[in-house]
Amino acid sequence: MWHCSFSSLSLCCLLLLSTIIPTHCYLISPSLLDLINSTCKECSDKSADINYDFCVTSLQPIPVTHVTNLQGVGIVAMELALANATNTISTIEHMLSSKEFDPFAIDCLKDCLELYADAIAMLVDAFTAFLSEHFDIATVLMRTVMDAASTCGEGFTEKKGELILLAKENYNLFQLSDISSCIIKQVSFVPSQPPNVSS
């Protein structure tokens, strides 16, 4: 059970992940590039919501881990979703402290803050389930994260003419979670193997 304030959620999450996965930074290899391209193509073909270009652009940099199989790509996708959610928490806190928004927008931002806090917890649980090969559980959790991103955006539409804040953040989290869900399903159909990480 976590006991983290919103302002420290990002640090808590990153510390948790750093105890699970070794972190390295390498240039992407041609074989990994092919794997990412084929994975994104399959996911975008199966889900009308997944943007192929977004998928490839997001996964290609491999910001934390250099991976050599599909499980590793799934880890990267989930790490990116978690990074997006924790960064969005900080963005929402800054927006709330700026006092630049009307009461309706503030209420929506507060709702989004709770949704993103819940999403972070679900992402960590999904990550654990994925590593434990509980793929059905991981998939359900990732779908719930997608719902959280959608719900955050929908809140702003309840008032006609209201500016939809966090549209980019919600889109990114939705995409990354959908990509992660797709990869989890793909991994569940292949023989069990550890997520290779080059050293």
TrEMBL record:
Leader peptide range in chain numbering: 1-25
Keywords: Disulfide bond, Signal
Domain spans labelled Pectinesterase inhibitor: 31-183
GO molecular function, a single term: enzyme inhibitor activity
Segments traversing the membrane: none
Top-level taxon of the source organism: Eukaryota
One Pfam family linked to the record: PMEI
GO cellular component, one term: extracellular region
Database matches in SUPFAM superfamilies: Plant invertase/pectin methylesterase inhibitor
InterPro entries: Invertase/methylesterase_inhib (IPR035513), Pectinesterase_inhib_dom (IPR006501), Pla_a_1-like (IPR034088)
Record family assignment: Belongs to the PMEI family.
This protein's name: Pectinesterase inhibitor domain-containing protein
Protein species of origin: Capsicum annuum
